Amino acid sequence: MASTTQIEARSVGKKFGKFHALRDISLEIAEGEFLSLLGPSGSGKTTFLTLLGGYEDVTSGALLLEGQDMTGWSANQRGFGMVFQGYALFPHLTVAENIAFPLKVQKRGKAQIADRVAQMIDMVGLSGHENKRPRALSGGQQQRVALARALAYEPTVLLLDEPFSALDKNLRGQMQEELRRLHRDLGTTFVFVTHDQEEALALSSRVAIFNHGEMQQLGTPEEVYERPANRFTAEFLGDINILSLDPAAGGIAGTRLDLPPNADAFRHVAIRPEHMRLAEEGDGNQLPARVCDSVYLGSKSRLLLETRAGEELMLYLDNGTGVPTPAPGTDLSIAWDTGDSFAL
Ligand SMILES: Nc1ncnc2c1ncn2[C@@H]1O[C@H](COP(=O)(O)OP(=O)(O)O)[C@@H](O)[C@H]1O
Ligand SMILES: [Mg+2]
After folding, report:
1. SS3 category, 28
2. Which atom of ligand 1 is least distant from the CA of 56?
3. SS3 state at 59
4. How far apart (Å, rounded) are the C-alpha atoms in residues 131 and 204?
5. Could you tell me the distance, in angstroms and rounded to a whole number, from the CA of residue 169 to the centre of ligand 1?
6. 92-128: per-residue pLDDT in tens?
7. Which ligand is nearest to the CA of 15?
8. Which of 26-40, 57-71, 219-233, 255-269 is least confident?
């Protein structure tokens, strides 16, 4: 990475009693980056975020901030902003008072606080709502107040724990857009926890994938989606066809095929559905399959097929092309480019 490392985790582990919530997490977070921690529920994302923020102590390993060991520092000494799951606003304070709260704790001057609060309210689009209490606001508005409060004292790092999980789908999309804009405008480092694959891919400069307290992979959205390091990551990030290698045939299900490099060392070949198509004459890699079912989805149809070895696979057909969707029972061949497949 060309950019400067701001935070570094070195072999960080966390135990609760005998339970290993995190094992051997090492990663570097660059200044100004948008890093997502992505994984299923219970994979250790929140635990890692609370270790970064200084709300819990690490059991082993070290955390560094700009090269300095911050492992023993309190949350206050680190001074990162935090937006929790749910809104965690003070119910008896108004919007303006909620946002002013961390600034008052820091004993900033009255005029300065008033200026900053006005600026934050404008930034998150809540002008006119200054004097309302949280319960008079919608979920999206409450989450904007939480964001404004966390950003009010200009932290160098903002930690966000599934901030949009309580919002409905449309509002979620809108808040994601706003978060991207805020990140672009502020240049603050964002570390964002989510269990939503699309959210992580859409927002992040890099994604760290967690499962069972271990980091499975760290990379750009494209790297982790197109070149997953293992089966967990491949399946967690979206639909994928995983077909057993047939060593005798040098291919799959009795058919010789061009396999990805180093396939010999693995047992499966994986191809995302969007990289598969119905074979046309001249296609090099052709695998015979029978259509089991098709599902009309509007702009596309999802085709479910079975190989001669009885393995299921899926592909999408673009409904804009005018090519009719093959009926269940049809025997045909599917094709893909070897470069779009990888061994697992
Ligand atoms: N304070 C705690 N005491 C005991 N176990 C905990 C505590 N916090 C988290 N855990 C356990 O650690 C694991 C990871 O939890 P968490 O980091 O909250 O997962 P995630 O945020 O990925 O859903 C879970 O099995 C959870 O039950
Ligand atoms: Mg969590």
Report:
1. strand
2. 1
3. coil
4. 34
5. 26
6. 999 999 999 999 988 999 999 999 999 999 988 899 9
7. 1
8. 255-269
